[in-house]
Amino acid sequence: MKSALLVGLLLVGSAGCAAVPDIRVVVEGSGTTDRLTYSFPGDEERTLRNPDLPFERVGAREGRVLIRAEGVHGELTCKIIINGREVRSATSTTGAALACDHSMAV
Question: Can you give the pTM of this predicted structure?
Answer without folding.
Answer: 0.78
